[in-house]
Amino acid sequence: MHLIILLLKPLMLLSLLAVSGCRLDAGTPPQLKQITDRGVLRVGTLYHPLHYFLRDGQEEGLDYELAQQFADSLSVTLHMVPAYSLNELFALLDSGKVDMLAAGMISTEQRRQQYRFGPGYYHIEQTLVYRKGTARPKSPTEIKGNVWVLAGSSQAEWLYQLQQELPELQWETRRDTDAEDLLRQVAEGKADYTLVADILLARTQRYYPNIQAAFTLGEPQPVAWMLARNDDDTLLAGMLDFFNQQHDSGQLARLHEKYFGHVQSFDYVDTRTFLQRLDKLLPQYRPLFERHAGELDWRLLAAISYQESHWDPQAKSYTGVRGMMMLTEDTAAEVGVTNRLDPEQSIRGGAQYLTSILGRLPASIPDDERIWFALAAYNIGLGHVLDVRRLTRLRQQDPDSWTQVKANLPLLHQPHWYRQTRYGYARGRETKQFVNNIRQYYQSLQWQDNTRTDTGLTAQHESLHADSDI
């Protein structure tokens, strides 16, 4: 199972821009002009961590961020219109209440007969999911049970087509649930199988580690914005131009890194251990993380601590670092920690040290990526991170892009490259994994915390448990 990211190429966009001429009713302004005259871009969406959700009153999500940037490029205000089901979402577009849909919509052949799509900004693979401990089907002919999917979803389209070849295939659509909840029901043995996008499985396995991918169906499919099918191409043309600019500026790559860069191979044992310690150990240390997080998210601080020590105050490595936050003697002295084995001192010191690193990073690094550079420096030292930035620039790449700097961290293992640095050799591959692990634990802690608090029962709960197509 893997996520396929599509970075748009200018040549491809030039070919896509060869749209047909507009044939509008007399007196009807072009759609793009209607939007600019109105001063508002209306975007239909679904509550979901990848699309649109609220965290501490702030709007977030990949589709939200892209839509906001598109609205900015048009010099209009963005108005997100959340729906609670696919049918409701399609109705918004069909009735003209929104200008477009941005909700991880998969561009399928059947949908293209009714709607139009912009350029794909990533691809997914349809993945059959089963429960660990049961027989793994290796092909559709080996499915021995019922497959549950969401009503109106692209997965339902796939199964309908597949049933034409395999009449004995058993499947049904569900209207009273969502894709993540279908995965939960497979994990709990209430459903035999479900079919979801590979990226959703990759994220959800961190919460339900006993679900696994059986196989994928068909070729990768593009995820794109959806528009009504009509003879007006102005909005589509504006959309294509926007994505071309996003590619050229590197902003699309940054968003991919933010939402997908930490998705990696699933480790069943590590995830089970994390979830067990989350229940048994974290409650006694959570007040300390909250107390000393400052401007940091306490869950990020807890994720760092888990990566460093598995929340063990007595932890010690062969390099001599110790405690909950694995501080060196020099770092402990720098932040005023006199006893590295004292949980509160260690957590306070780790938070203070990370905050100081954030303040010392170059101002040119984008705000939403600074934390990943800081985490790398927490592990390997700020000097080595600055060295990798210099190597990245030397290779004519962007030293402010975490995607490109992360890819160059292993160069610190190679004599040809580390001889050109100020601080020399370092275990860059380990640092790359260190940051990715923390991002995974952080995501899991956000999910767990959102589902266990009152906030999770309102907007946050909806953001994680709404009817989603991906």
Task: Describe what this molecule looks like in 3D.
The protein is of the alpha/beta class and 470 residues long. The chain folds into 3 domains: 10-122 and 223-260, D-Maltodextrin-Binding Protein, domain 2, CATH 3.40.190.10; 123-221, 3-Layer(aba) Sandwich (D-Maltodextrin-Binding Protein, domain 2), CATH 3.40.190; 268-452, Lysozyme (Orthogonal Bundle), CATH 1.10.530. 47% of the residues lie in helices and 14% in strands. The chain has helices at 10-16, 31-38, 62-73, 86-94, 109-112, 154-165, 179-187, 198-204, 234-249, 251-260, 268-280, 282-292, 298-309, 329-334, 343-360, 370-380, 382-394, 402-408, 415-418, 428-452, 459-464, and strands at residues 40-46, 53-55, 58-60, 77-83, 100-101, 115-117, 122-131, 146-150, 170-174, 193-197, 211-223, 226-228. It has a 5-stranded mixed sheet, with helices on both faces. The radius of gyration is 24 Å and the shape is globular. It starts with 9 loop residues before the first helix and ends in a 6-residue tail after the last helix. 44% of the residues are buried. The model is unreliable at 5-24 and 454-469 (pLDDT under 50).
